[in-house]
Hints:
Elements: H1 3-22, E1 48-57, H2 58-63, E2 69-77, H3 81-91, H4 95-99, E3 102-103, E4 109-118, E5 121-128, H5 139-147, E6 155-159
Parallel strand pairs: 5-6
Antiparallel strand pairs: 1-2, 1-3, 4-5
Amino acid sequence: MSMKQNGLALALIAMTSAACAHSPAPEPAPEAVYVAPAPAPTAAPEETMLARVYFLSEANLQAGVDPLLLSVDRVVSKVTPARGVLDAMFQGPTDAEYAQGLVFVSSGATGFQRLRVENGVAHVELTGGCSSAGSSVTIANLITATLKQFPSVMHVRIYDANGQTQNPNGPGDSIPACLMP
Length: 181
């Protein structure tokens, strides 16, 4: 190797050493920062109202005094109040209301699957069983009193689970034959 080549090699070694000696230490990776996602937009709170739900007063029934049905207040949606009161009725009285002698008369029904109000008539189709068991007080009494509190309901037509009622097109209220005493 010539002197010139030796010098060049030494210069390269020196530059490499200098570059390595003076290069700054690598910076540590930045810490991960957790950014919580923005909360999902919330729907506007639903407007509610107080409405009445009727139950049978066992004490009044046993004493033979009116009224047989007594109302209690429930909070329901202003958008679908008729559905709200029927849902509340099928949930039955609270423990405190039950302790006061109020009972839900189901007549074998477990709920309802259709409800529509048109031209002043509420149409309710029951689910589950349907039997008056010879009683003159049935679920029809509770449904009718509960729905007629609304100005838009003048008549109530109740249908059994097969879609049958005694007077589907006539004037006034109608119940299925299974709810007759």
